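User: Please fill in residues for this 287-position structure.
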């Protein structure tokens, strides 16, 4: 039986490949709403940001260690380790790098909120810090006794790379936060007016027997006419179909019992005033 079933499945097009593709499509339909969940986006973005920033900080520290030695050699000159200037020269480059990193971190925070620094000294300070580091690393390599093209290129490129990494790290943090906030904003979406306004209390349930409106008032008679006014026949109000059917059954039951159909029978079916019951009774008696 198995070969015949296999051939039948192939004849209908339900092969193993079709079943596998169907399973993948069903899985994709379930994964799509999960992949768009803002919390999942925030977690994945935070994990990627942390991994990227840690790696950049590691290489930034390596570059700063190299530029620090170049700045120290430039400032210390012929001083030995017993001279305080030799030790103080080690703190200059970390101070410059720390100032640059603090400025760029603050810039990342305000950029994440869509605010620009907007001051000419902001860019000037960053350029001064980069320029001094670059100058103190390159000038000693230009001395004829120490000149080497490879050493000059390294002392020229590494400060620029360090400055670029210091610029990129805050931008990564700002853009990561922007992606997270954009995901939450798209998930919330614009609220409709019905969602933002209070719908108010719900109306009370309507009774089984609907309320019957009051009968229309009789038309006033003309004062100039000598002919006596004849009151028009009061017509009963328009009633729902199920109420009319109940009144007709009450009328037929009164006829079967051999008694007349009275307004009191109308009031047993629907609770209305006497005048309205009389008008309904008149309508049922004439129809």
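Assistant: Residues filled in for all 287 positions:
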């Amino acid at each position: 039986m198995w070969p015949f079933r296999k051939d039948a499945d192939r004849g209908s097009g339900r092969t193993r490949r079709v079943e596998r593709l169907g399973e993948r499509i069903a899985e994709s339909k379930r994964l799509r709403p999960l992949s768009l969940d803002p919390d999942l986006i925030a977690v994945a973005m935070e994990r990627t940001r942390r991994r990227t920033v840690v790696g950049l900080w590691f290489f930034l520290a390596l570059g700063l260690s190299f530029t620090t030695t170049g700045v120290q050699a430039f400032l210390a000159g012929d001083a030995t380790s017993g001279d305080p200037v030799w030790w103080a020269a080690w703190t200059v480059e970390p101070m410059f790098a720390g100032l640059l990193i603090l400025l760029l971190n603050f810039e990342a925070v305000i950029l994440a909120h869509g605010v620009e620094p907007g001051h000419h000294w902001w860019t000037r300070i960053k350029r001064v810090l980069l320029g001094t580091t670059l100058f103190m690393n390159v000038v000693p390599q230009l001395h004829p006794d120490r000149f080497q093209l490879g050493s000059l290129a390294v002392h020229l490129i590494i400060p620029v790379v360090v400055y670029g990494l210091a610029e990129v790290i805050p931008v990564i943090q700002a853009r990561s936060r922007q992606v997270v906030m954009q995901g939450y904003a798209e998930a919330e979406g614009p609220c409709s007016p019905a969602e933002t306004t209070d719908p108010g209390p719900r109306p009370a349930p309507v009774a089984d027997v609907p309320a019957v409106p009051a009968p229309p008032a009789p038309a006033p008679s003309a004062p100039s006419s000598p002919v006596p006014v004849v009151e028009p026949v009061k017509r009963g109000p328009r009633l729902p179909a199920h109420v009319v059917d109940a009144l007709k059954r009450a009328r037929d039951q009164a006829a079967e019992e051999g008694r007349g159909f009275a307004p009191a029978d109308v009031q047993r079916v629907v609770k209305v005033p006497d005048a309205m019951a009389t008008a309904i009774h008149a309508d049922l008696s004439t129809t």
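For context: The chain has eleven helices and no strands.
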